[in-house]
Design brief:
The protein starts with a helix and ends in a 6-residue tail after the last strand. It is built from 29 helices and 6 strands. Strands 2-1-3-4-5-6 form a 6-stranded mixed β-sheet, covered by helices on one side. Strand 5 and strand 6 form a beta hairpin. It is globular. Among the domains are: about 50 residues, no CATH class; about 100 residues, Serine Threonine Protein Phosphatase 5, Tetratricopeptide repeat (Alpha Horseshoe), CATH 1.25.40; about 70 residues, Tetratricopeptide repeat domain (Serine Threonine Protein Phosphatase 5, Tetratricopeptide repeat, Alpha Horseshoe); about 120 residues, no CATH class. The chain is mainly α and about 550 residues long.
Length: about 550
């Protein structure tokens, strides 16, 4: 970059250069700079009177090599408005990739429309990028339309389609496409396997993930660093931490991504000591930790209540010159809040050199509520409403804060604001994989084909749980209704429906694995512990934050989550 700066300075101090030579020289500097200092390259682009499409494409691609951002989309919009030079297939492919990384569905569909009007939508390179975009945005129906229109389906297209189905939990469809791929004579490669395995990790589709692992071994597909790391990540995110460890230990070479996957896996499973031991081994192996590694380490400290250790790792990270990201700040706030150090958390946030994001403020509100610091919680929650006036989660937080203080008037006022503004809360949703098919349950939704059987079985489970001496935590139902209605509402929580369905459709000793989009509530946590003992079943619940492994009435989190 120092040499490029010198060349740039030389050009600027020689005004005798012709405009065409000047533009050509700046374009060349831009191409080299795009991968080292992308913002410098962007300023160069704006200095060129008529930049060519190669300069635009290089800069857009340069941004793709950095953290996901909307910059490629902004550059594409500038390119389209200027009308010259016209975009080409590379431009579209790069922009679709950017939209898939964010993800930005609305913008991506606009780019799709442009591809059609410009006559480039039929290009196989563009089609593959478009398919991958829809798959990553979980618009698998639209992705399938693109896939069906493709005359030439390469291995990347097949991989995207398989990954798209697996990502949304359509395991049987993913397997069917995988079989079609083999019948068509297209041999799956390492990229295919990484795509499919990674999607299984997101969906919690363990059965398909295991099948893919066996397929790799059976067909002799190269189990390289990327494939092995994807397997470690998949097993960890499906709650099979020991299997993840076995794959990890068998790896002949491990990079920072592999070590980080294992550390994060231990962290979300609540195995804080194992995560920190793995971090120590990483140092002994002389592998440089990255940002994700430190997120895993700090998360492990937070889930393990290790405040002193968390402070130590935070200090060492700063001493090493690693600039903390917002995720790192969030981990530290979470660490203090979980340890009931709400004041320390608030002071830490006040000392941050960057403005906290809404997620950090929400963590504080939850902690203030837990510690009955209602006034501070109300102040922060009102700031959240100003920051994100259309985010339902902020209204729910403030509403629950008032409800926990039995301030039903203010709670009703918040709920009324939500109705008037048309803001709807995200319902609790849990999924469970049975015989290769993922079943989804939403709180209070009885549209499942076997709803009658599930309802009857829920009643049986409820009776057994209550007979065992469980006292329902009806205070966790933040509604101004009678206790009977609160009890009914608790048994309609999505994870209970999924667990009941798992008990109904499988037999011991099969493990029941549930994935939930929100945090598990206190009562569901206690009920699941009781169910694991009454029915002698291992139950693993992956909520938005971490894993809970219930065995014989005990949870792996030790009731600290």
């Amino acid at each position: 970059m120092r040499l490029l700066n010198q060349i740039h300075a030389h050009i600027l101090t020689h005004p005798h250069l012709s405009p065409s030579t000047y533009a050509f020289s700046l374009s060349k500097i831009l191409c080299f700079a795009a991968y080292r200092d992308v913002h410098y390259a962007k300023r160069l682009l704006f200095q060129i009177r008529c930049p060519n499409i190669f300069a635009y494409n290089t800069l857009i691609r340069g941004f793709l090599h950095h953290a996901p951002s909307a910059e490629p989309i902004f550059l594409f919009r500038r390119l389209i408005r200027s009308k010259f030079p016209p975009s080409n297939t590379f431009t579209l492919a790069f922009v679709f990739k950017s939209c898939s990384m964010l993800p930005a569905l609305h913008e991506g569909r606009q780019v799709h429309k442009h591809a059609i009007t410009s006559g480039l939508a039929g290009n196989s390179f563009v089609q593959t990028s478009l398919l991958n975009f829809y798959a990553k945005c979980e618009e698998v129906g639209l992705g399938r339309k693109v896939f069906d229109e493709m005359s030439d389906r390469n291995v990347v297209a097949w991989s995207a389609m398989i990954g798209g189905y697996a990502r949304v939990g359509k395991v049987n469809e993913a397997l069917e496409v995988f079989r079609e791929m083999q019948k068509g004579g297209v041999k799956p490669d390492e990229v295919t396997m990484v795509s499919a395995i990674s999607a299984c990790a997101m969906a919690g589709a363990l059965d398909l993930g295991k099948w893919l692992h066996m397929f790799i071994d059976k067909k002799g597909i190269k189990n390289d660093l990327e494939v092995s790391t994807a397997l470690v990540n998949m097993y960890a995110k499906c709650g099979c931490i020991e299997k993840a460890r076995a794959v990890f230990e068998a790896m002949p070479v491990r990079d920072a991504k592999a070590w980080s996957s294992m550390i994060v896996g231990f962290a979300i499973t609540g195995m804080a000591n194992e995560a920190l031991e793995m971090f120590q081994r990483m140092g002994e192996a002389q592998v440089e930790p990255n940002h994700v590694t430190l997120i895993g380490v700090l998360s492990a400290c937070a889930h393990g209540g290790l405040v002193a250790e968390g402070r130590k790792y935070w200090s060492s990270m700063l001493d090493c010159g690693m600039e903390p990201s917002m995720e790192h700040y969030g981990c530290m706030v979470d660490l203090f809040c979980r340890a009931n150090k709400a004041e320390d958390a608030y002071e830490f946030v006040a000392s941050m050199p960057v403005a906290p994001n809404p997620a950090i403020w929400r963590t504080l509100v939850v902690s203030f509520k837990k510690n009955k610091m209602f006034h501070k919680g109300e102040e922060v929650a009102k700031q959240l409403l100003q920051l994100e006036p259309h985010n339902a989660e902020n209204y729910i937080l403030l509403s629950s804060l008032y409800a926990s203080a039995s301030d039903w008037v203010k709670m009703s006022s918040v709920r009324r604001q939500m109705r008037e503004r048309g803001i709807k809360a995200v319902p609790g949703c849990s999924s469970i994989e049975i015989n290769g098919h993922v079943h989804e349950f939403v709180m209070g939704d009885w549209s499942h084909p076997e709803a009658k059987d599930i309802t009857d079985f829920i009643c049986e489970v409820s009776e057994r749980v209550q007979a065992s001496g469980h006292e329902p935590w009806i205070a966790s139902v933040l509604q101004n209704v009678g206790n009977g209605e609160k009890l009914d509402a608790l048994w309609e929580h999505s994870e209970r429906l999924a667990i009941a369905y798992g008990l109904l459709k499988t037999k011991a000793p099969a493990t029941i694995r549930v994935v939930k989009n929100l945090r598990v509530c206190e009562d569901c946590h206690e009920v699941t512990k009781t169910i694991s003992k009454l029915y002698n079943r291992e139950i693993i619940v992956r909520d938005r934050i971490r894993f809970h492994k219930f065995v014989d009435g005990v949870c792996s989190c030790q009731d600290f989550w």
